[in-house]
Amino acid sequence: MTELLDKIGTIQAANVTEVNDKAVFSQISGQTLATNRSEFETVPSVGTSITGFIYEDKKHQLRLTTILPKARLDHYAYGTVTEVRRDLGVFVDVGLPDKDLVVSIDDLPENKQIWPAVGDRLMITLSVDKKGRMWGKLADETIFEAISNRASQADRNKDVSGTTYRLRAVGSLLLTDDYYLGFIHNTERDVEPRLGEHVSGRVIGLTADGMLNISLRPRAYEEIGDDAGMILAVLKRNPNHAIDFNDKSDPAAIKEFFGISKGAFKRALGHLLKAGLIEETDNQTKLK
């Protein structure tokens, strides 16, 4: 293996030396590498040359694959977390047969509660150490800035989804599914997202450099409950956006019109008032 140490993680040409039912064997510098026979539409003949990616599989056997991994040297891509080892790091699938890349514990948050979970996604590149071991290295902020789009004020109040890529004390950075950069301030979330977690929120503003300010909290009207939602729908439907009811209205009239008790009606009005969606007069309730 020492002869190929500097070639691990690179694309190389190799000479085919043997073919059997399961594999195609080739050599580089006297070292034999196996390639799954199923990778070839037409099986190469002995003496011909094949080109592929050199790596060491889970059994520490040198292999050459014609299936290029999504993340390579100086090439970044999303990979999916397949395993979490608290003493080592997380394993990430980048498309290699029988091999996942490890993102080291040293590159992950100190708080293991916000480590990626199985199924989360990390944008990584390939790194090979002096012993020929392959690792996944997280993309830094300059990479995300380079691949992102610039947002505009027209994006305000839009629903967005994205994947977190940096966790800070003040908040979380993410890349949306449409490749816009976003920031979630810690006051705009109930729980801190994990690194690599896919989250959904809404745009509440825009920074000077074109980054989306995102909230993971529901809109006010999404928090108000069924009764308040029903009252809000009635207000929106009425041409004058008003109803001849308030918190002092007759309980029987409320029950007949809305089908709820006066207590439930008052609680619903309270939610709407708190959300800043309505205002009350002496004998009416109106949309703001």
What does this structure look like?
This protein is mainly β and 288 residues long. It has 4 domains: 64 residues, Beta Barrel (OB fold (Dihydrolipoamide Acetyltransferase, E2P)); 63 residues, OB fold (Dihydrolipoamide Acetyltransferase, E2P) (Beta Barrel); 73 residues, Nucleic acid-binding proteins (OB fold (Dihydrolipoamide Acetyltransferase, E2P)), CATH 2.40.50.140; 67 residues, Winged helix-like DNA-binding domain superfamily/Winged helix DNA-binding domain (Arc Repressor Mutant, subunit A). The protein has 4 helices and 18 strands. It has a 5-stranded antiparallel β-sheet with strand order 3-2-1-4-5, with no helix packed on it. Helix 2 packs across helix 4. The longest helix has 13 residues. The radius of gyration is 29 Å and the shape is elongated. The mean pLDDT is 92. This is RNA-binding protein.
Short précis:
The protein contains four helices and 18 strands. By secondary structure, the chain is mainly beta. The longest helix has 13 residues, at 262-274.
How many helical stretches? 4
Oligomer: single chain
Could you list the spans in which at least 5 consecutive residues all have pLDDT below 50?
A: none
Global outline: elongated
The rounded Rg comes to 29 Å
Span between N and C termini? 73 Å
Any guess at the CATH architecture of the largest domain? Beta Barrel
Pfam family, one: S1_2
Domain Conserved virulence factor B first S1: 8-66
InterPro entries: CvfB_fam (IPR014464), CvfB_S1_2nd (IPR048588), CvfB_S1_3rd (IPR048587), CvfB_S1_st (IPR039566), CvfB_WH (IPR040764), NA-bd_OB-fold (IPR012340), WH-like_DNA-bd_sf (IPR036388)
Domain Conserved virulence factor B third S1: 144-218
